[in-house]
Amino acid sequence: KKAQAWSARFSEPVSELVKRYTASVDFDKRLALHDIEGSLAHADMLNAVGILSDADLSAIGDGMARIRGEIERGEFTWSVDLEDVHLNIEKRLTELAGDAGKRLHTARSRNDQVATDIRLWLRATIDAVVAELESLQLALLEVAGRHADTIMPGFTHLQVAQPVTFGHHLLAYVEMFSRDAERMRDCRRRVNRLPLGAAALAGTSYPIDRERVARTLGFDGICANSLDAVSDRDFAIEFCAAAALVMMHVSRLSEELILWMSPRVGFIDLADRFCTGSSIMPQKKNPDVPELARGKTGRVNGHLVALLTLMKGQPLAYNKDNQEDKEPLFDTADTLLATLRIFADMAGGITVNAARMRQAAAEGFSTATDLADYLVRKGLPFRDAHEAVALAVRTAAQRGIDLSDLTLDELRAFSPLVEADVADSLTLEGSVQARNHPGGTAPAQVRAAVARHVQRLEGT
Ligand code: ARG
């Protein structure tokens, strides 16, 4: 009795080491339900074009239904001897359906089969990622809406630059995550093409109907070239690239959460259930979740590089190298989904210390630009206004006070254009309210942006 589906050509069985080295079933069994789905669509098509009898088709249908149940209940016995998910399922089908099971592989190769399975799996994965990205955006929007008026310092070079609202700051991340979702949807269009029919590489001599299979499986169309269909994994690389961008955004947000939560800054607090303690320092409440997310970003970047490198030296068409696509791809999806899920949950639990934020925004001459703009409105050219305010800042800094602590007369020493109405320009509220144009930090703009995004996401 031959051990492998292909072993008739060989004079000795494959060595144990090689068997273990080349087997993929331990990880590709994750594709099992998609493998069954693809096989059923293929069988339906073989029957429709007259290659497979009605009796064989129904035997295959019954066998696959049974196998699906066994897999779902965890009763299916996976065997390394049978190499991969495809041969494991085919073997069991043949036990259950006899010759009909052996006929299933007509006009098909594992090369187009595995490419189809991955695409089906990735399509579902992308839909899940998009849903999680939307939940995260909604969670951030909820907090942003509550903090449309909350003033914090905006930074450049990690130095206080100008006051912004906390809502506006969070909306920046909503923009990033909405572009990420867009990228995922765009990637899905290229994932959603049918490789089946390419067979090993050249196509098949049977009169197959690829469009029918594409329709059955919900693909938007077929892969147009058989060599390309079985050999390229650019769609998976593209997903990993889009995933790396999401993680990069998550990582930047993480960095800010960690910084804001540091007792030295004290802008926010995260709910206790997202933090951990120290086994030695009793006072600690550590932001482990954002730190771990920042760390996992490296791992997702690594998977992207792994896949690019996996692909770059391969001649057409299929090479066994491609079996190595799965673990990086699966781990990318697992890491991304778990991270997004926890962030959507955690974002809602951010509590804000508005007083601390306000106090920090009041330091560092954050309204200096507003004073310069004030002088410009009074007729001074911007460059001259910049210089006058720079001198005022220098004087205030030397005395250890803020611009708003200078008297009217002291301010007038830097420019005679200063009048009593300057006070409004020096307040934090005046500063943020003045930036009242689309994309600006004014509370009214923040509220409008929140409403627009919620409408986009919820369609209400
Ligand atoms: N397990 C293989 C993979 O993941 C399936 C295709 C195998 N084809 C082959 N000719 N060895 O890529």
Automatic annotation (TrEMBL):
Residue ranges crossing the lipid bilayer per the database entry: none
Gene Ontology BP annotations: L-arginine biosynthetic process via ornithine
Matching InterPro entries: Arg_succ_lyase_C, Argininosuccinate_lyase, Fumarase/histidase_N, Fumarate_lyase_CS, Fumarate_lyase_fam, Fumarate_lyase_N, L-Aspartase-like
Pathway: Amino-acid biosynthesis; L-arginine biosynthesis; L-arginine from L-ornithine and carbamoyl phosphate: step 3/3
Catalytic activity: 2-(N(omega)-L-arginino)succinate = fumarate + L-arginine
Residues covered by the Fumarate lyase N-terminal domain: 9-302
An example Gene Ontology molecular-function term: argininosuccinate lyase activity
EC number(s) on file: 4.3.2.1
Argininosuccinate lyase C-terminal domain: residues covered: 365-433
Chief subcellular location: cytoplasm
Similarity field: Belongs to the lyase 1 family. Argininosuccinate lyase subfamily.
Protein name per the record: Argininosuccinate lyase
Record organism: Quisquiliibacterium transsilvanicum
Organism ancestry: Bacteria, Pseudomonadati, Pseudomonadota, Betaproteobacteria, Burkholderiales
